[in-house]
Specification:
about 325 residues, alpha/beta, TIM Barrel, 6-stranded parallel sheet, 13 helices
């Protein structure tokens, strides 16, 4: 790798807005190949993320999602979320020299200055609220700063992208959730949300939204990606979408290269400019990634690829993390 790319990547603020690594910490991830505790301070030969590899990959801010698996829905979702949060806090307590809980932009800046990973608590699946805004408020007190409204199925907030036969969007409760998230300062994440639900969020949210791990449907025609009109609306809203490394979301034949992932970035930049795209790897929640992106330690090849495509240093810094930092500042304060 060229020295310029390595140095630029190291100096930039690099933010990844989605991983499912906490399920590995709990030891119940379907992609695990070994048994035993998965601790973040150890370097592992399986999986995609741990603290040594985050440092090698130059990732400064990592969102750790509490993914609510279907087996826990609907009546055990809240308990499952709390189990995952417990795993998160256990790792925080065990790694005070290398992890810092980030609930504000200042926390991110402090972590970068101290050479620590800023760890952000996120939820993937609003069924964990169990229909109660009081639970949402308590999640905020616990440190949750981003919530994906649905996974693929329907819940009491909205229809997921995999359960959209009724063409339904947000429920009455779902609209109230958006308003309360805006008030509290929690990011509204529309990845996995049905198309009608997306447009409801655009209408209701007063703050920029994110699609934490979704690509461009025009480049890869997958239901989990956003179409051009959605991308334009997200940009008008001031939001950011994080590029997902899942092979089938990058290229329809499921055999992508780094170039295919960069094609998604190119398309979004050509459509709405460089201020609305970021990274949302989906590491530890995917079975295959683009060639070369075998785990988080390989993240610098994205910077190298963007340089080779003629992106300026300024625009690369925006894509790596600057765009998301702007949204965090507006939503979290």
């Amino acid at each position: 790798m060229e020295n310029k790319a390595r140095q630029l990547h190291q100096d930039a603020l690099v933010i990844d807005t989605h991983c499912d690594t906490l399920l590995r910490v709990l030891g119940r991830n379907p992609y695990r190949q070994q048994q035993g505790a998965y601790r973040l301070h150890d370097r592992h030969t399986e999986g995609h993320i741990d603290l040594p590899r985050l440092k090698e990959g130059g990732v400064d801010v990592q969102f750790f999602a509490a993914y609510i698996e279907p087996i826990y829905k609907p009546d055990r979702s809240l308990k499952r979320a709390m189990q995952i949060f417990d795993a998160f806090y256990t790792e925080l307590d065990a790694n005070p020299d290398s992890m810092l809980l980030a609930t504000t932009v200042q926390d991110i800046i402090t972590a970068k200055e101290q050479g620590k990973v800023a760890a952000v608590m996120a939820i993937e699946g609003g069924e964990s609220l169990e229909g109660d805004l009081g639970v949402l408020r308590m999640f905020h007190r616990l440190g949750v700063r981003s919530i994906g409204l649905t996974w693929n199925e329907r819940n009491d907030i909205a229809d997921g992208v995999g359960d959209s036969r009724s063409k339904g969007g947000l429920s009455v409760f779902g609209a109230a959730v958006i308003e309360e998230m805006n008030r509290l300062g929690i990011l509204v994440d529309v990845s996995h949300l049905s198309d009608p639900g997306f447009w409801d969020v655009i209408e209701i949210s007063k703050h920029p939204i994110i699609a934490s791990h979704s690509n461009a449907r025009a480049v890869c025609n997958h239901r989990r990606n956003l179409d051009d009109e959605q991308i334009k609306a997200l940009a008008k809203n001031g939001g950011v979408m994080g590029m997902n490394f899942a092979a089938n979301f990058v290229r329809e034949d499921g055999k992508p290269t780094l170039a295919d992932l960069l094609d998604h970035i190119d398309h979004i930049v050509q459509l709405v400019g460089p201020h609305h795209v970021g990274l949302g790897s989906d590491f530890d929640g995917i079975g295959a990634a683009p060639e070369g992106l075998h785990d988080v330690s390989a993240m610098p090849i994205i910077t190298e690829g963007l340089l080779k495509r003629g992106y300026s240093d300024e625009h690369i810094r925006l894509i790596l993390g600057g765009n998301y930092l702007r949204v965090f500042q507006e939503v979290w304060g």
